[in-house]
Amino acid sequence: MTSSARTWLDRIRDLPLTRPVSILNVCGGHERTLAAAGLRKLMPPGVNLIPGPGCPVCVCPEEDVFEAIRLVMHERVVLVAFGDMLRVPVNVPKGEPRSLEQAKALGADIRPIASPMEAAAVARGNPERPVVFFVAGFETTLAPVAALVSQGLPRNLLLLVAGRLTWPAVAMLLRSERPGFDALIAPGHVATVMGPEEWEFVVRDHAMPAAIGGFTTESLLAATYSTLRQIVDGCSFLDNCYGESVRPGGNPTARRCIAETMDVVEAGWRGIGIIPDSGYRLRPVYAAHDARRHFPADQGGPRPRRGEMPPGCDCARVILGKVLPTDCRLYGSACTPDTAIGPCMVSDEGACHVWWSAGHRRTRSRPAAIRADRTAAGRAPP
Questions:
Q1: Could you give the CA distance from residue 211 to residue 196 in angstroms, rounded to a whole number?
Q2: Using CA atoms, how far apart are residues 355 and 351, in angstroms rounded to an integer?
Q3: Which range of residues forms the domain containing residue 272?
Q4: Is-contact 200 238, C-beta < 8 A?
Q5: End-to-end CA distance of the chain
Q6: Can you give the CATH number for the domain in which 142 is found?
Q7: Are 35 and 350 in contact (CB under 8 A)?
Q8: Residue 374 domain flag
Q9: How many CB atoms are located within 10 Å of the residue 32 CB?
Q10: What is the distance, to the nearest Å, from the Cα of residue 16 to the centroid of all Cα atoms in its chain?
Q11: Over the stretch 153-204, which tens digit does the pLDDT of each residue have?
């Protein structure tokens, strides 16, 4: 740990906290940093760091993954997607492919990519076939996709858009009777694109301390200190602890590209349901590149647990910060990164995958004081 990180940690430990405090970190990248540095174990007693809904693979609707599988299995198309999406499971009868990875094993032409530019390259290399780009991600993913659209797509490249905005899920949690956290660390990469203003509602509408954090240990500890200091001082404001990248107004070019190519619509979040104004959809002017217009969805009748998490999976409650990964009864038994059942164990930004990779294993019991804190305050323990 660097001297700067140690200084921030000492400042956190010196704060005169008088009650347990739970802080929600929205971003899966933040969760990776927290786990890799072992920061939860270094927090003073009563400071609980809770993983939140910042994993786009985890919240991608089950119906959209099913649609992508159906499309590539029944149409003569090439499907490209970011690597993590290939392993996300859907709810289908035994014997049917339950992921894009399984569909690929059955002969479907599915190709993992790492950037939108690769999708365009695949389309140019296969001009005789439709190439469908399954787009799942938050604002940071949609920005380069929107830039690609605005520059002009290859004629045969179609987009199956399942993009989501980050903040509406947090807003939904804050509107609930028991959000389960006292402060918020907002994602620095999203604020870099969209601007810090997108998170001002946390303070303005809910009087909750908030800070924007980067992805180094120092930045996350600075953001943690800021929110705790606000609680101690009895004030709330949005603190930018990632000033080297986050500027007022965000990235004007990226925001303009998104606004010109995408509409914001109500959208489903896996295991959570419909959230108003939380999804992206290609604007009608780009209908020629909308995969859903070329290949209308045919669900083929009702499916068991359509849109839900797999049976026994607690990923939805993990995403909402209601339980910890280790509270899920499948965690570490039926569900590991090698045998992932829920989406939170699939993605390297999913809390379950992060925790397992960091060595967190299920424990049979928790200290009585932690259980009491959790019961009294509706908070997850560290």
A1: 9
A2: 6
A3: 61-163+251-291
A4: yes
A5: 20
A6: 3.40.50.11740
A7: no
A8: no
A9: 18
A10: 33
A11: 999 999 999 999 999 999 999 998 888 999 999 999 999 999 999 999 999 9
